[in-house]
Amino acid sequence: MPEFLRALRFLTLEGRLRARQGGLPTLLLGMVVVTALYLPPADAAYLTLSVDGQRGAYDWAWVGLVTGVLGALAFSLSAFFLTGRAPQRDAASGTWALLAASPVSRLSLLAARAVTDTLLLWALWSVVLIGSVPVILARGETLGRPDLGALLLPGMLITFPVLALIAALGTLIDTVMPRARLGRGVAGVLLWTALVGVSLSTPAPVPDLLGVREPLRQATLALTGQAPQPFTLAASGVNVGVTTRAAPLTPRPWTGLTWTPADMAQRGWPLLLGAALVGVAALIDPRRGEGRRKRAARPGRAWRPWTLPAHPALRLTLLDLRAALLGAPRWLPVLAVTLGAAGLGVGANPTSPLLPLLLIAGVPVAARTVFQGRAAHTDPLLGTTAHAATLPLLRMGAATAALLLPATGALLALLPTRPDLSAALLASALLGAALLLTLRDLRVTDTASESLLFLAWYLGPFNHLGALDTLNPAHTPLILTLTAALTGLHALRQFGLPRRPEVPA
């Protein structure tokens, strides 16, 4: 059989496996909600893309700009958790040896997986592009005849190459750390943050892999008549993300982006870089997907186990944290300590973007803490214990501790000078743990639905979700109220309905 047909068979197989993700309907519904969030009406209390508090009228060109820019920034974060993890699946099912012995080349196998992930991300983002059409008509700000070209072209030239790069980067991460799901999540968040930071905070001639720098410069010129030279997001007055709006809004007409042949050619750089990353992944030893060889036990010093607290609740909480970190890469605790030390500098600059990053970095550990009982199929057994009803609430406490661990330095630095901001940081961690617990109640456990969590984190603490800006001290009472409501609903679910104890077969 020719190599092309073998690769096509693997591509078809990977596509069928991706399509079987149980959370895809939930994710599609989430994408529809995201479409409405990206395009708020003129009288809404928040904006998603603005220049000095102004935005363009909702014609086809402006909506294409909004979806293109926010797709490259917001959806690319959740895309990390939709792609890859195929080596973990192969190692767990024991099919890696069969794949390694197959006649298809390793490069073709990895390329098929990267292409499948890319097509999945493109299909999901197409839902946003298609869903924006009725939103445009409902807002009633459009001028002239429908222009689908102006709507689709920014998304195709800005978002689609970025999603292809994210898919290739996920393939490389899976090859480097095939067994470390927790490490993969942390590495994805950090690499995404670095990619966004380099693209937005550096002027030309640094390559803009996200493709958002020139469109935002044109938007600044159109809405304000001036743009700083060299153009950087920090000095432009452009806000990308969901922020509150206090002044009355008068949408201004937007004629659309100007795409030169050079601009279009530059959008091929993410595709070329993605292909290079897949090529690098093919050079890595494929035996990394196999289980580690068991070494013979060597006589050594007998280490005493950690002393567990006598209180049952504290004991279960500590055991959950230890189980969540079991098998984690060795650099993960070092990274947490490094972030905690870096957080000491937040006291000098509380507006630094490091503060929301400290919260986001702990999300993979917190998610594993909350969901590990279901993933390990030990929930029926835990349901027979004396503390079965309170165990999820204890896991919420463990998840809060995991979220706060990287932010410990920031809490210590802000407590003497900004107790209000340190309280907001604590409330944000509590809300994050309550949201994780809510997702557990909704049986959201697969990668498709997990990506919604990181999209919510982007719209929340990372980019200020309107009145629910979790890092705004003025909103701390509202955040605590929402946390209490979610926790109360969970407690009602746990204690309100009589249940028979489940005994595993």
UniProtKB/TrEMBL annotation:
Protein name in the entry: ABC transporter permease
TM segment ranges: 21-40, 60-82, 119-138, 150-173, 185-206, 268-285, 392-415, 421-439
Membrane is among the record's keywords: yes
Keyword line: Membrane, Transmembrane, Transmembrane helix
Keyword Transmembrane helix annotated: yes
Coiled coil residues, start to end: none
Species: Deinococcus knuensis
